[in-house]
Here is the input.
Amino acid sequence: MSNEKYVIGVDYGTLSGRALLVRVSDGFEIASSVHEYRHAVLEDTLPINGKKLPPDWALQVPSDYVDVLKVTIPEVLKSSGIDPTDVIGITTDFTACTVLPVTETGTPLCELKEFQDNPHAYVKLWKHHSAQPHADRINELAHARKEKWIARYGGKISSEWEFAKALQLLEESPEIYSAMRYWIEAADWIIWQLCGKYVRNICTAGYKGIFQDGKYPSSDYLKALNPNFAHFVSEKLEHTIGELGEKAGTLTKEASQWTGLPEGIAVAVGNVDAHVTSAAANAVNPGQMVAIMGTSTCHVMVSDRLAEVPGMCGVVPGGIVSGKLGYEAGQSGVGDIFGWFAHNFVPQEYVDNSQKLGKDIHTYLSDLAIQQPVGGHGLVALDWQSGNRSTLVDHQLSGLILGLTLSTRPEEVYRAIVESTAFGARKIVETFNISGVPVTEFIAAGGLIKNKFVMQIYADVLNMPITIIRSAQGPALGSAIHAAVAAGAYKDVVAASAVMGGVEQFKFTPNPENAKVYDQLYRHYNSLYEEFGHNKVMHDLRRIRDTALMGAQ
Amino acid sequence: MSNEKYVIGVDYGTLSGRALLVRVSDGFEIASSVHEYRHAVLEDTLPINGKKLPPDWALQVPSDYVDVLKVTIPEVLKSSGIDPTDVIGITTDFTACTVLPVTETGTPLCELKEFQDNPHAYVKLWKHHSAQPHADRINELAHARKEKWIARYGGKISSEWEFAKALQLLEESPEIYSAMRYWIEAADWIIWQLCGKYVRNICTAGYKGIFQDGKYPSSDYLKALNPNFAHFVSEKLEHTIGELGEKAGTLTKEASQWTGLPEGIAVAVGNVDAHVTSAAANAVNPGQMVAIMGTSTCHVMVSDRLAEVPGMCGVVPGGIVSGKLGYEAGQSGVGDIFGWFAHNFVPQEYVDNSQKLGKDIHTYLSDLAIQQPVGGHGLVALDWQSGNRSTLVDHQLSGLILGLTLSTRPEEVYRAIVESTAFGARKIVETFNISGVPVTEFIAAGGLIKNKFVMQIYADVLNMPITIIRSAQGPALGSAIHAAVAAGAYKDVVAASAVMGGVEQFKFTPNPENAKVYDQLYRHYNSLYEEFGHNKVMHDLRRIRDTALMGAQ
Here is the structure.
């Protein structure tokens, strides 16, 4: 008979959900299971009636989230062979802002017969991008009225967030807007399904819901956006706030039947995938920046100091760890820029050679590029192919490559692109440093940590050691840690992270010679950054492009 | 019995020579024949002893040039079936500055046993680029001493030209320098072989030999460069100057035996390939700019006015047409930038598809690109992958691409690159316009005229009709025209060109809608041009590159 106890963290990604069964005493990962959403992402049509969706829409089906619980949790219980009664807590983390309209009792409107044909009744996924005009109005009005909260978001509210998507809902589908009782984050809705109680987690409320210092934007402000939006906060949004690591409730009988877990165990407040990774890396102290590096990069860091960091995505008290200020910043394109280049701009000969050597194309390009000394390509690039989230908060910006000659080879451009994203990370770090919330440690998580070439470039460019998260399932482990705290196994997330989370012994250490050359290249990056970040050339090129393409329709 | 008379033009290119037999009465091209140089370009080793050549060297073997006469002229006589006695004149045009050391009697030093092992005894081809340090000293000293002639060359003497290559010869191989009687252009050496007389053509003397207003750089100036260089002009360089279209002499008995042409026919003064193309296009009047568009582009235009056009390669009285001022400008990279992109940055899928459709990759990319409206790619590029000849005269510059997004496709970058070279041409045209020597007509010659996609973009970007030279062998026809003048068939080159040269009826006409959008894109190109042409970012990147690569050796 073992005395070991266990917790489960469920990580809800864009295309699938993953359950991770973790030992409470040391964070050891016992078993995991993944389930892909049956409806994936709805971007073209609504399955029920084949109705065409407008461009830039991205919806999901909430029952897919419940299916993840029904499939993956029994599976980890079975494959681990543990006694389910030894599981003492569960929680989840989610993409954000992923948001849906529900009734008083939490039923998604898309599950009601009268609304199932209406795309607005479904979950709007984080990457649903058609509320940009609404976001633009939100920002213009906030600046015009000098609303204080806008500074906490680096000066811009995103089209991805709760208010922009809600305003779109109101104006495009007043009947759904009117019928919904709550405009709820999926992060909180899934917790409601587990414990039968709606608790609004502070993280999404703060970062995505403009909840600052106990307040939302005023009714006056909302009325000026649209008279019918005046009472959005009081009628649709506000609700009990839960701190991260708190217990939201206990597992219901129904959820117990879905999962095979004991009824009544602790269900912690919901989390966001990026932010919860800090706990998994045990990087929950001021100065420890965690970069979740994948197709894009999200940077999260806690601090004791409130500062306005230009271009950050937000600063939220308790937004990462309860009792501390949580900062978030981001780079809108990282791995997807590498992928774009490798897919579109690498010749046949390279693909053939990489296949002969049994390497994927990224490894092949990296192995070629690394043979050249730093700066040997003579290139510098701006990493804005997908816009710039931090520090410029400008998605009209675009990429630039400079220094091309007739002898420039694909692996050189590839390397310059990788370096440009490292320079982008350095710009963010330096912006935090000069804003009074210095970064003293850089911890990498996410898919790109497997890429040694990328990691070493980041270490050399930042001239800081890069520590690597130990877990390959950072978000799910982070959730599990929060579940352990909610279950009372640890006094708080900091204590639990110290035992259950952590980083690899191995670090990527900067090479001082490389760092010196990168300092020179970074100066050029930074000059180009300041110049093209503000001179509107890229905006005008985009305007010309959009005018041309519209005219051609 | 026909009364028709004929002339022969021989065009000496980088890898081969071409003879063209032309009817004097109307310029009709009767027959042509090409012969490749046996030794091509010596860039790695000297064949006689396998001696390794330093980087950036490019040599040729003069006997290869004579072989062209021996092979191609009998061939055109034979294939045309004409009576050789109906041929009344011959001349040649050459790459420039292609230059060699010879004895008093014109024997190349490389043909002397004592020197055949010394690379400096051979022909230095135009693209022999290792005299850059010598060119740098020439330019610095000229500016320091405020030498007036430097302004006639846009402020810079090229490393390709006579003085830089001679200074290199003096300093690296004083024994060859001392043994040579003449430092002679291949353009003039080959005429010497035909007529037994050395006449220095005004075109190379002016553009490549710093011969201005009847004078060369002073002995004082040369002495300051190197005391042993003080008498370079008087001892090695200066010689009787011949105007273009003048008779240099008559065909020798020996040359008659090589070629099968009648002894004693007119041999015209030598020419340069680009400049002589003006005659072939019948574009010999002020305002008619001829662009010889290939891997690079050379722009030539005559004028009645002496002006200092910033960044031109030179202005030479009689340098294109006798009695008029000849202007030359250039773009150091054009077709070779397209080739570089197509070779290095186009994925397998594109190559496969182009092959399926039976198109070469350039056509395939063009056909895809043309489907998009002008400006639809949102890109702008600087065409400096091979540096900038005009108007910046700076080979340390490099290429730039701006406006990239994750949806940017290879055909869009390809198009932006083609457009960047058209913007470069527009910059040259506008620089001539504002310098008081306006361009009123744009005539295209060279390999790129076959590319309709490129030509239409140039018409739209320049917002000028593009006229196309009629002959596919522009330089050889231009030489033939000069031979006809030297033979007395026409009173001058202008008269001969009017009959024997010409352009196609068809023109590429600008599309006004496209031109409007290109005006907007050009404004951005021009801003980037002015900025990166002067801010030294590209210079510094190159310095970083060169330092890195040297350190790695």
